[in-house]
Amino acid sequence: LSDTPPERDIEWTDEGADACWKFVQRIWRLVSEAENLPPPGTKPEGASDLRRAVHRAVAAVTEDLAALRFNRAVAQIYTLSNAITSAANAPGAERREALETLVKLIGPMMPHLAESCWEVLGREAFLATAPWPVADPALLAAQSVTIAVQVNGKLRGTIEIAPDSDKATAEAAALAVDTVQRAMEG
Fold this sequence. Notes:
Blueprint (H helix, E strand, L loop, with lengths): L13 H19 L16 H18 L3 H17 L5 H15 L4 H10 L16 H4 L4 E7 L2 E8 L5 H9 L2 H7 L2
Helix pairs in contact: 1-3, 2-3, 2-4, 3-4, 4-5
């Protein structure tokens, strides 16, 4: 599923099969080696990077599965697993949410692994009966946007500002870029 859109032919390779096996093992390790997780049903609070990654993945995988773009859905799951790995020191409730969401997202593609992981996470009912995750729109909103800064039609730099910044703030940030200042001299 991860190698190509479903309408294209795929040539299987040993390397591709090995990569799939390693990813399945990685998911299993993430779940089975998770420590200090609060009990199932604990709700995380706040808007950390991990929680934002979880909710972005939910939105993207949901959309990709509905459109039968399985390769893109798998890519989003890879991204989420990387975010979970990077957030090893996140609070337990956030890690539980991330791991449970990861397991739910792999469910349609790897149901046996997903059910085993669900059980390891302390859930007693089958994953197949659990509701599909829903992305929180507040956690999908970007915290900053990157804007290209041009002088006379040439890219001179980029700035990163809050999406709700006013014109004066954007102009001040753009004028503070060294390459923009040099291009505007004289």
